[in-house]
Amino acid sequence: MTSVAGPFSDLRISFEQMIGGEYSVTARLDDGPPHASVFTMPMTDDEIRLAIAQLSTTRSSTDRLRNSPSVSRAAVVETQGNQKRTAEDFGTKLYDALIGGEVAQLFDEARSRGDGAVRIRLVMSKEQPQLLGIPWEFLCRNGTFLAAQPESPVVRELTTPERVSPYRIPGKVRMLGVIASPKGPPPLNVEKEKQRVRDATASFADEIDIHWIDDCTFTKMQRALRELQPNILHFVGHSAFTDAGEAVLSLCDDEGNEKLVNDTTFANLIGRAPSLRLVVLNSCEGAQAGKDDAFSGIATKLVEQGRSAVVAMQFEITDEAASAFAGVFYETLVGKRYPVDKAVSEARKTVMGVNYVEFATPVLFLEDGEANVFQFPKSVPKRALVLSGAAIAAVAMLLIGFFAFRGNNESATGSEGPGTSVASLAGVGQTISAASLLSVDNCLDSDLFTGADFFPLNFDQPATAVGSGIESCTSALEHLTTDGYQSDSLYTVIDDRISEAAGLMADGELTTAEEQLFVATADDLLDRADERWFAIKEFFGG
Question: What is the Cα–Cα distance from 289 to 491, expressed in whole angstroms?
Answer without folding.
Answer: 53
